[in-house]
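Morning - magnesium ion inputs below, output right after.
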Amino acid sequence: MLVEIRNVSKTYETDGTGIPVLENINFAVEDNDFICIVGPSGCGKSTLLRIIIGLEKPTSGEVFFKGKVIAPDNPKVAMVFQNFALFPWLTVKENIELILESKGVNDKQRENIACKYIKSVGLDGFEKVYPRELSGGMKQRVGFARALAVEPVLLCMDEPFSSLDALTAQNLKDELLMLWADKNMPPDAVIMVTHNVEEAVYMANRIIVLSPRPGKVVADLRIELERPRNRKDPEFYRWVDKVFSLII
Ligand code: ADP
Ligand code: MG
């Protein structure tokens, strides 16, 4: 078991009234899982992901990473954000080197690792370019390169494809699935938040469905479809329908 989410609840206190956002969430992430978390807008998906990576504290309950309570600076965990979250005043390479520096990687290695992962996401030649000069799809490639550069065991992603055009998104999805399946490349496990059910069925080996706020786990499904998955396969559509029927 890689990650264990145990009895996690979260209530936000806003002007004296508590808003319950997550209620008693329990599930475990195995070493090679690709988990998609789906649920209606506002049900607490992003909050849950921030709690899983240790960026936010649950009101009660715990998250364990390899048996220890998760810490926000865990070098084995990386995050890809929906809005890319790049520093506009740094080049592509510098954006990646910065995160490596914060993890204590030395000068020379930083450059090598940054170049390796810029290449792995198909951005070679763009090392010295600033984010404003890149399209949305390219910015998200930088987001992926930055997350992968720390060679995370666990990669967390919050709707990473939702602001990209369909074709770019599809290419990035397939590249990510290849990296996940490649035993010599990070990451081992992925947790991805999405509101796109078809995307979840395409990518996940497990789909966790949350109820409307406060989010509770209403289903934990193992998607038994062969890879690469075919959206035109009737079996694929049975899964999409099944997941849809569970989202209220
Ligand atoms: P989702 O990602 O599923 O759309 P979120 O986790 O972003 O949902 O938010 C769940 C609920 O918690 C929403 O009602 C949101 O307004 C509220 N919320 C999120 N973050 C905060 C915060 N920092 N303070 C107060 N309320 C918050
Ligand atoms: Mg969200």
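Note: Helices lie at 45-52, 92-102, 107-120, 136-149, 166-181, 197-203, 234-246.

O.
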